[in-house]
Design a protein that fits this description.
Blueprint: E1 2-8, E2 13-19, E3 25-29, H1 36-45, E4 48-53, H2 65-71, E5 77-81, E6 95-97, E7 102-105, E8 108-114, E9 123-128, E10 139-143, E11 146-147, E12 150-151, H3 159-176, E13 185-188, H4 208-214, H5 223-231, H6 240-250, E14 262-263, H7 266-274, E15 278-281, H8 285-290, E16 292-293, E17 297-298, H9 305-312, E18 319-323, H10 326-338, E19 344-349, E20 362-363, E21 367-368, H11 370-376, E22 386-390, H12 394-398, E23 406-407, H13 410-416, E24 425-429, H14 434-445, E25 451-454, H15 457-463, E26 475-476
Parallel strand pairs: 3-4, 4-5, 5-6, 10-13, 14-19, 15-17, 15-18, 18-19, 21-25, 22-23, 22-24, 23-26, 24-25
Antiparallel strand pairs: 1-2, 2-3, 7-8, 8-9, 9-10, 11-12, 16-20
Helix pairs in contact: 3-5, 9-10
């Protein structure tokens, strides 16, 4: 058999194509909405996809199963779990499978194993030859259950459900996964960088033998101790995850039905801002810091764009994008549609020569040198010129931060922004300046009058040997 992997950057999603060598029949596991790379691969391999499999209802991206089926002219079936109850079955499922149900793929057998914990309905798809014997399993598509060096987080459905899902996950690890041999090759739905688990390893391949030797959550201990270890240091679950699950259950429009955004003139984008429309400025943090339309939110189209746009962009509201060119527009549309942000109605291609059209409607959030921040806060007193706002994660904060800084993870800033005093000048800092640019734009929109982005972030601060503290001192909001 052959397994091909397609990775979606930013969200660290792994989509798989499994091909039976005898019949050239194929099965796709955990497809995203961007099916073009998958279609190219299917055509290149000359295989016929007869099954589209889902491991669970995804929380971090929109499923591409029905998009793929539509492209394949309905000549395949979508298999989803029935094991979490009707409320956990997607409306596009052709077959609702039960525990240990078998799907034939030519000479291969694919068996559904119920592995609840990350979600109630979660499945692991285990692949065999002709002999369906757990000890003869060849590989397993583990979804968000088993990740390299980690497990899928059990806290996405709220505090009430976290304990029960953690107990389910414990049983899935020590009563279900334990039935498979060391030789089983592991194919998870996510790699390092995903928000669906903590401390996911960067390795590119693994087996159950390797996981049993290196994965701390496969080490047997009492259930209570195990759950404490699992949840310790778990980042806060993104708020948009709940929305994404709902969309994946209730369904979302086909991409071909979406209306293309219209191009706006300089005058029209200003009118859009005056009408309180949502404007996302996708230019670099440096360009945004220099000049931008008042009210625009900065989300540079690079790196972890797709993660942060899900946090920042208001769902359901009309959105206009500011980009440098049409290539950037296409990239943005592709990534935003991966997470269900479909209501992109307009765009403006930035032209510095037309900046006079924005007279009275432009702002800046300039950079400030780390040494200047250090110099002006050296006395560490309340009358200091800068209030330092650190928007990194709790883990980054604990590794070292500027004394007397205020800490608020960017993912929580929208919720907690009202607790920050509006007076004074803020110097916003993150790891490199990317998240600080987003944070500064959010603060500016909330009426904070004086803002700076610390150039180079904590990376540059540390490079210069400027002082940090690591004690458990935290001024939070």
């Amino acid at each position: 058999m052959t397994v091909h992997k397609i990775t979606t950057p930013g969200l660290a999603i792994n989509t798989y194509l499994l091909i039976d060598p005898e019949t050239r029949n194929g099965a796709v596991i955990d497809a995203t909405r961007d099916i073009k790379p998958l279609i190219t691969l299917i055509e290149r391999e000359g295989c016929s996809v007869t099954a589209i499999l889902e491991t669970h209802v995804h929380a971090d991206f929109i499923s591409g199963s029905k998009e793929l089926k539509s492209h394949l002219n309905e000549k395949t079936q979508i298999f989803c779990s029935s094991l979490g109850g009707k409320e956990w079955v997607s409306d596009y499922a052709d077959q609702e499978v039960v525990d240990r149900q078998v799907i034939s793929l030519g000479s291969l057998k694919i068996q559904a194993w119920h592995t609840p914990g990350h979600t109630p309905e979660h499945l692991m798809w285990v692949v065999f030859g002709e002999d369906i014997n757990p000890q003869k399993a060849q590989l397993a598509f583990t979804g968000d259950f088993l990740l390299f060096g980690s497990l899928g987080r059990p806290d996405l459905l709220g505090e009430k459900e976290t304990r029960q899902l953690s107990e389910f996950l414990y049983e899935s690890v020590f009563s279900v996964l334990s039935q498979l041999p060391d030789s089983t090759v592991v194919y998870p739905a996510h790699g390092a960088g995903s928000l669906c688990g903590k401390s996911i390893s960067k390795q590119s391949s693994s087996t159950l033998e390797i996981e049993r030797q290196t994965n701390p959550f496969l080490v047997y201990m009492s259930q209570n101790e195990w759950i404490i270890n699992l949840l310790k240091g778990m980042p806060k679950p993104p708020a948009y995850f709940a929305r994404m699950k709902h969309l994946n259950i209730s369904g979302i429009p086909y991409l071909k039905t979406l209306i293309a955004p219209k191009e706006l003139s300089a005058k029209a984008i200003v009118e859009w801002s005056h009408a309180k429309g949502v404007i996302l400025d996708l230019r670099s943090k440096e360009e945004f810091a220099s000049v931008h339309i008042t009210g625009a939110l900065s989300i540079p189209l690079q790196g972890s764009f797709v993660n942060w746009v899900s946090f920042v962009a208001p769902f359901g509201q009309p959105i206009a994008l500011i980009v440098n060119d049409l290539v950037s527009l296409d990239q943005a549309l592709l990534q935003m549609r991966l997470v269900g942000l479909d209501n992109i109605q307009a765009f403006y291609i930035w032209d510095p020569a037309l900046s006079r059209a924005f007279d009275g409607t432009v702002s800046a959030a300039p950079f400030v040198d780390p040494s200047e921040v250090m110099e002006k806060t050296a006395n560490n007193n309340s009358s200091s010129i800068f209030k330092i706002l650190d928007v990194r994660s709790a883990e980054e904060w604990d590794s070292g931060h500027i004394k007397n800084a205020i800490h608020c993870d960017l993912s929580s800033l929208n919720e907690q922004i009202g607790t920050l005093p509006h007076t004074g000048t803020y110097a916003v800092i993150c790891g490199s300046g990317y998240r600080a640019s987003i944070a500064a734009s959010l603060l500016q929109n909330a009426g904070f009058p004086s803002l700076y982005n610390v150039a180079g972030g904590m990376s540059e601060w540390n490079k210069r040997g400027l002082p940090v503290v690591k004690e458990n001192e935290k001024t939070g909001i």
